[in-house]
Amino acid sequence: MISIAVCDDDRNFTEKISGYLASLSSARKMNCQIQLFHDGQDLAKSVKNGTRFDVIFLDIEMNLVDGLKAAEEIRKVDKVVLIIYVSNHSQYAIEAYSVRPFRFLLKPLDLQQLEKCFAEAISEVLADDAYFRYVDGKQSVRVPIKEIVYFESELRSVKMVLNNDVRIYREKLNHVEKTLIQAKVEFWRIHQSFLVNRRHVCQTKYSEVKMSNGIVLPISEGRRNQIRQQYLAKIAKSMVEEA
Question: Alpha-carbon distance 38 to 210, whole Å?
Answer without folding.
Answer: 49
